[in-house]
Amino acid sequence: MRLSVIAAVFPLVFVAELPDKTMFASLLLASKGRPLAVWIGAAAAFAVHVVIAVSVGVVVFNLLPHRAVDAVVAAMFLGGAVWSLLANREENVRDRGADQSAAAVAGTAAVVIFLAEWGDLTQILTANLAAAYHSWLSVGIGALAALLAVAAIAVASGARLLTRVPVRRLRVVTAVVLIGLAAFTVAQAV
Question: How many domains is the chain partitioned into structurally?
Answer without folding.
Answer: 1
